[in-house]
Each structure stands twice: as C-alpha cells, then as structure tokens.
Amino acid sequence: MPKTLTAHHGLEIWRRALTGSVRGEGPDLTARQMALMLTVYLTPQPHTVRGLAASLNVSKPAITRAIDRLSQLDYVRRKPDEADRRSVLLQRTVRGSVFLRDFGEQIARAAKSLEG
Amino acid sequence: MPKTLTAHHGLEIWRRALTGSVRGEGPDLTARQMALMLTVYLTPQPHTVRGLAASLNVSKPAITRAIDRLSQLDYVRRKPDEADRRSVLLQRTVRGSVFLRDFGEQIARAAKSLEG
DNA sequence: GGCGATCGTTTCGTTGGCGGATCGAGGCTA
DNA sequence: TAGCCTCGATCCGCCAACGAAACGATCGCC
Q1: Which of B28, B35, B115 minimises the CB distance to A22?
Q2: φ, ψ of residue A78 in degrees (nearest 5)
Q3: Which DSSP symbol is given to A40?
Q4: Do the chains contact at B38 and A18, CB–CB below 8 Å?
Q5: What is the pLDDT of residues A55-90, one digit of tens each?
Q6: What are the distances in angstroms from CA B26 to CA A1, A35, B33, B54, B98?
Q7: The domain A29-103: what is its CATH number?
Q8: Which of A61, A69, A82, B29 could form a disulfide with B33 if both were Cys (CB 3.0 to 4.6 A apart)?
Q9: Crossing angle for the helix pair B7-23 and A49-56, to the nearest 10 degrees
Q10: SS3 of B92, please?
C-alpha cells in the first residue's frame, strides 16, 4: 500500500513508465485510447459506447474510433447487447490483459527503482 | 516515500490521472510530447534534439515537431547553443512548470484517494 | 581554405484522429 | 402499428503527426 506519493515522485514514475512505453515496440496509443483501455479493464462492467463517451467527456464517434483501433489490436472486443440490440458491450481480451499487466509492471518497476 | 507500489495500484493511479487529463480542458499532448516534456523537466540539462531523439528512440523530425508543438504552447523554448551553433538547447518555462506541477498533483491526488 | 561529418529543420506523401451531422437499426409507448 | 426516441456507426472536411530523404548551416580536421 503506497504512502503519500508526492507530486514529484509521481511525475518521475510517470516519466519512466511513459518513456519506456514510447521507446518500446508496443503500439502507441493516444491518451484517449489508453484511458478507454484502463476504464474498460479497471472499472465495473458493462461498458457501452455512450457510457464511455460520458465518462471520458468525449464524443461518441471518438469512442467508436478508439474501439476500432483497440479491437483491431485485439485489446478489446465488441459484443452486441442481447437485452438491447442497439447497444454494444465491450469485452476484455487476453491480449489486452497481457498488455495492461505489462504496463502495470512497468509502473511498479519505475516506482521500485525510486525507493530507498 | 512510496513503498512497493503494486502493478494494479499503479494502473489504477494511471487511470485516474489520465482520465482526469483527458476529461479536462488542458491541451492533449501525445505520448511522445508528454515524454519529451518530462524528460526536459526531470532529467539533467542540457537537452538537444539529437539527445532527446536517442533517449526516446524516435526520429529527429519527430522531436522537432514535438518541440514545435510544445513551444507554441510555451511549455518549452529553443535556445541556440553558443558553443556549437548547430545545436539547439531546450529551456524550461514557467508555464511548462505550472503544467507539470498540476499534473503531478493530479497523480498525487489519485494515489492519495487509493490509500487506506 | 577545403571537405566530409554532424546539427536541426524542412519537404513530401501518407496515415489517422478530430467534431458535427446524419444514418439505419432497434426499442418504447399508445 | 405509427411515431418518436436512443443506440452505435458512418460520412465529411480538416488538421496533426508520421518516416524518409534532402537541405543549409556549422563544426572539426588536415
């Protein structure tokens, strides 16, 4: 359990993790795409386009496009809502889980290398 | 001083800070632009285009473009290197410092709200 | 002084994200 | 069943970022 992460410390962790991500070979996602990923994987289901648009304060087409990109990477999948066929629910994928797990470990490593 | 920030915890902090940033009214910087900002402000001077290109593993034109964008926001300034007129050094600005300070506090807040 | 190397920038064509408007599919109510 | 609403997707023109190549300016060296 972290204890009062300071702003400066947070920035330094952010720098290391982000730099690693930029340097790396992984796909480079926009801030919105990344925010969408994190929202889908870390907040309670279900996730719809309109819900995400409201949650991220972004237009619906922007969400559709982000999903296009992420599903083409197989980081997320569309699943029609059987209860309301107008809606589309987002499903997590193994590949997306792996991507986020790796990213999370990168953050943890950055934090750890700052200790002591 | 943080103590063993877990991957999951790190992701959750990342989600909250990034979502806040996406929702907010600030300029949305690309991952590269943000990485450039953090490198300039958090690592030792001086910073040159080629140095940043190597550090971020990115092409020089990409760095030039990122600097164009950031200097137009007055987050960074170009200063000719008097010792080697071919080089350009990057200077920090007040506005950039404020931007990063706010962002750092957003991270700190996200971390704090996870405690306990 | 001449010449190759190195600096950051510019140009070029391409790709991809953007908001706003609009669409067709589907749901809801009477 | 008719009319209206809401859903996500698509179309449109625009703008920003991309890599590769070429450029002018400047340096280091002989």
Answers
A1: B35
A2: -85, 140
A3: H
A4: yes
A5: 999 999 999 999 999 999 999 999 999 999 999 999
A6: 30, 15, 14, 28, 12
A7: 1.10.10.10
A8: B29
A9: 80
A10: strand
Cβ <8 Å between B32 and A22: yes
DSSP character string of A56-88: HT--HHHHHHHHHHHHHTTSEEEEE-SSSTT-E
- Name the average pLDDT for chain B: 94
Higher pLDDT, B25 or A21: A21
Average pLDDT score over residue span B45-64: 97
Residue with tokens 């700052």: A114
Q: Is A95 helix (H, G, I), strand (E, B) or coil?
A: helix
Q: Which of A23, A43, A17 shows the shortest CA–CA distance to A102?
A: A17
Name the residue among B35, B28, B9, B12 with its Cα closest to residue A15: B35
In this complex, the residue of B10, B23, B105 whose CB is nearest that of residue A56 is B23
Q: Where are the domains of chain A?
A: 29-103
A1, A63, A101: best to mutate for the B interface, most B CBs within 10 A:
A1
The region, left, alpha or beta by phi > 0 then psi within -120 to 50, assigned to residue A57 is: left
**Does domain B7-112 bear CATH number 1.10.10.10?**
yes
Please name the nucleotide lying closest to B81, CA to C1': C7
A13: tokens are 């962790």
Helical spans, DSSP H, in chain B? 7-23, 31-42, 49-56, 60-72, 94-112
